[in-house]
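G., before I forget:
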Amino acid sequence: MIETYELAVIGAGPAGMEAAISASENGVKTVIVDNYPQVGGQYFMQLPKTFQADKNTQTEFKGKKLESQLNSLPVTKIQNTLTWAVFKEDNDQNWLVGLYGKDTPKYIRAQNLILANGAYDTPIAFPGWTLPGVITCGAALILLKSQRIKPGTRALVTGTGPLILSVNAHLIAAGVEVVSVCESNQILPKGFRYAPTMLKHWPRIKEGANYLRTIFRGKTPYKMGWSIKEAIGQDHVEKAVITKVDKSGKPISGTQKTFEVDLVVTGYSLTPNTGLARMIGCALDYQPQKGGWIPVRDHNMESSLPGVFIVGDGAAIGGAENAQLEGKIAGTAVAVKTGHLNANIAENFIQQVKPNLRSQQQFGILYGDLFTPQSGLISLATDQTILCRCEEVTFGEIKQAVLMGARTIGEVKMITRTGMGNCQGRMCEHSVNNAVVEALSSELVTHQSIGHYSVRPPLHPIPESYLAEAHIEVD
Amino acid sequence: MKRIDKTSSLIPQVERGTLIKIFVDGIEIEAYKGETVATALLSAGITTFRLSHKHKKPRGLYCGMGICYECLVTINGIHAQRACITPVEEGMQIETCKELEL
Ligand code: FES
């Protein structure tokens, strides 16, 4: 028997937790599914259950509060579980959600979906980026904050956005030497324009200022308009070469500097994790300042498919507070849809949160304007540089495909196998899109016209035997 | 690659889980309950988790959160497990650099 819910929330980070809480508080029969052993997502990252801390950081404290709120409600929690597919049932208005995990049901059914799948560091390719010792900001923060290990002893941090400052501060706190923090964008003087918006976001600015202070105190050089150019090493990164980049992100020759390091942390802002939205056919739009290909949504966070809501950084990069508000709005909308909440009461609530939401959105605009990875960063890669890590497809091979006539990312995929590996293109879509634009710069082609990868089930590779069994059960 | 012993306001002190033993390519290493396989490997100085299919180049942890599939290892005979999101268990047998077709 497949259990049916009025709402399935996929992802238990700030957005997903708030969505489940709002819906359940209004009486919606809700299930929340999460990939990790503990709720909280990347933002409210928790220590492993078996670790004991005598103190909580402020963020951990907020996350714990949200978790106990969730626990106090009759929400079914399915953790440690991959959502590998969502199907629309033929004769039915329901969504069938395919799950994979130890001791978890193979399927659940839901009338409405809220996707809250978070985001990942936008992967930027450069020579040597596949070497062990080159990791993302997300990886570094998990290792430092939750797993409590030092990912190296001497590090270069490179990317764009506030996350690289946070990584730097945590590395230094852990006793790792940081040789340099490279911010690829020239954020000054443009940043001054945003002073009024920033003042309205004082707590965030304070957090940022604290991280900056670590930079000054630790005397880590923070270089704006710089990026890594190459990671060098045999079986592990041994050296990092950095370069000045122009406004468009292209490296400026003659500016290179080399450091001996055993760790490179890269984070060129974030990309929303839209795999499930793509699989079921939600309309997407290319908005680089919000993270790339993002789902089209209305004011209730509902996608182009009725009953499918998408919230938080998994829909557009906006930060945790914005994600929480969006979660609340979507959860409330589902409560109206399922007849548990009067539309007028919901409208009242929406009006209440509107000012705060607008202020969050302004911050999002500032963030996007200052910290969007420049498309010229593709020129960090040489013809030999691998862009698709899974299938080991190089920039040169992609240029070749374009010469053969490929004009869309789908055509590049057919010719070269990019995006056909285990990661389903998450690691190469950004690079391949920029590579095609770069290769065709003389012709009329845009990021939008190149398109995005489509995603088919299973979203994540899962054992054949499990799939075979799972299919029998559907039939 | 060492476990953090310094404490600060950003990284307050923790008591790790119980000490357990796991085996990596037949060699015994120590790990704490609650750590992931990736953490245990990195702490033991092992950074190459697998070799790439085509060119047999070393690969290791990259995204750290289960989405890039670069950290695949064999765990208790089961191929292609993500080291970054799999918690260690007493006596676990881990093999690195194996053929990893799923
Ligand atoms: S490091 Fe990306 S999946 Fe494990």
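Chain A touches chain B through 58 residues (CB under 8 Å). The radius of gyration of chain A is 22 Å.

More on Monday.
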